[in-house]
Amino acid sequence: MYEPPTGEQILRDSFLFVLMFFIVVGNTLIIAAYIKNVRLRTSANVFIVGLALSDWLVGAIAIPLYIATLRTESSSALLIRFYISLDIFSGTASVFHLVSVTVERYIAISKPFLHQRLPFGAFYCVLGVVWVLSLFLSCLDFTLTTSVSEKYPFYVLLTVFFLALLVISLLNMLIFKIARSLIRNTVAPAPAVEQDRTRASLRTKIRRERRTATTLAMFCGAFFVTWLPHVVCVLVFAFCFPCDLALVDIGRVGAFVKCMQYSNSALNPFLFAFRDAEISKTVASLVSGCWNFVQPYANFRSSIAATSTTTC
């Protein structure tokens, strides 16, 4: 088992605990904002909140288990297998949410009339399928033999990652191509007043859809950048190490790529709040409300401490 120097161990664990804090707090605020503000309950945000929930599970469960496997000298095989299964669950759930919201945005901008006719419950059904499929893929690991189970996480990660990369990249290119085409086609040389208002309204709506698509592209870009080192290491560990191609510190590299992977769950809430003014205001009101709730108790304790000091 890899045992880093004490200073490096403290630095690594401190970084993971900071990540845990930002992941849990940030994604809790996103979920709470969605529940509080009715205007945020759009079809795209259904999947964004689903993504926030999967990220919350990473901070609340996956990272503590990862720290436990690092700190325990003889981690049980069951604990390690449960951690790997949870890692598969959270990773595939994140990928499936990103694919779902990309498909939803593509339908919204390429087939707006079809998108408007879709019942809102249909998006919740898709969300349910995402969670069930992720759970199935993670639980399937427990039903496999030991020899097959060793390679199963690699194949799942590589298949899901590269298929999602292909689908999301292709759909995003089509989304921006359609948006540019629609904006050009809504410009007329000498329109009537009513036509001008209609076209202006349509251009505003298209630009809003394009901004949402840009936010989505940032989400996807952040995901693939932060997960790419993990995927590369999986390829190296699975296919190159039996050949003894290089001598590397597996433990140190593994800890780095896992920190990169988990940092995506902390980055997503900030990206969402930065790009969406409505959710920024809602999150600010939630934080302000929490502070107003806590402040009287803090002032009360301060006054007690001041009184005690004066008495002494």
Can you offer a commentary on this structure?
The chain has one domain: Rhopdopsin 7-helix transmembrane proteins, CATH 1.20.1070.10. The longest helix has 47 residues, at 193-239. It has helices spanning 6-36, 43-71, 77-110, 112-117, 120-143, 146-185, 193-239, 250-275, 277-311. The mean pLDDT is 79. Helix 3 runs parallel beside helix 6. It has 312 residues and is mainly alpha-helical.
Number of helices: 9
Overall pLDDT level: 79
CATH topology: Rhopdopsin 7-helix transmembrane proteins
Number of separate strands: 0
Radius of gyration over C-alpha positions, nearest whole angstrom = 24 Å
CATH evolutionary superfamily: Rhodopsin 7-helix transmembrane proteins
Q: How helix-rich are the residues, as a percent range?
A: over 70%
Low-confidence stretches: none
Largest sheet: none
Q: Under the CATH scheme, which class?
A: Mainly Alpha
SSE sequence, one letter per element: HHHHHHHHH
Strand fraction equals under 5%
Instruction: Please tell me the CATH architecture by its name.
Output: Up-down Bundle
Broad shape: globular
Count of structural domains: 1
> What is the CA-CA span between the terminal residues?
55 Å
Helix-strand category: mainly alpha
Topology:
Layout: H1 6-36, H2 43-71, H3 77-110, H4 112-117, H5 120-143, H6 146-185, H7 193-239, H8 250-275, H9 277-311
Helix pairs in contact: 1-2, 1-8, 1-9, 2-3, 2-5, 2-8, 3-5, 3-6, 3-7, 5-6, 6-7, 7-8, 8-9
